Amino acid sequence: VQEWFFSEAAALNPADWLASCRKRVADIKARGHELIEDEVVHGVIDISFPILNAEGRSLAALTMPFLTSYQVVIPFEEAARMAHQAASRITQAMGGTLSELKRPLRR
């Protein structure tokens, strides 16, 4: 699916855009997650973890939007750990294994 996406995208987008997308995917794979701050809404941090099958292929992603507030009940690191744990459980149900959560979380 990934190569199909890139081949279709190549026909519609500049080469530098395609190269940046390939790099982003490779970086996400190396980190084991994606963390995006303030991309759409100021103050929201989105963290995503893959859902993997037995072959290690991504079937989906579990994304948790985290809204910062002055009355934080659960700190971001703890919420991210909980989201990773949920993604890991779903991955295990699909026959896969999710890598350990690397800290500190970074983009």
What does this structure look like?
With 107 residues, the chain is an alpha+beta fold. Helices cover 41% and strands 21% of the residues. It is built from three helices and three strands; from the N terminus they run ααβββα. A three-stranded antiparallel sheet has the order 1-2-3, covered by helices on one side. The longest helix is centred in the last third of the chain and has 18 residues, at 76-93.
Attribute tags:
3 strands; alpha+beta; 107 residues; three-stranded antiparallel sheet; flat
Draw up the topology in text:
Blueprint: H1 2-10, H2 15-31, E1 34-37, E2 44-52, E3 58-67, H3 76-93
Antiparallel strand pairs: 1-2, 2-3
What shape does the CA trace take?
flat
**Biggest sheet, spatial arrangement of strands:** 1-2-3
Instruction: Round the mean pLDDT to the nearest integer and report it.
Output: 90
Radius of gyration: 15 Å
Q: Quote the beta fraction.
A: 15-25%
How many helices?
3
DSSP strand count:
3
Terminal residue distance = 24 Å
Report the uncertain regions. none
Listing every helix as H and every strand as E from the N terminus to the C terminus, the arrangement reads HHEEEH
Q: What structural category arises from helix and sheet content? A: alpha+beta
Biggest sheet descriptor: 3 strands, antiparallel
Helical fraction equals: 40-55%
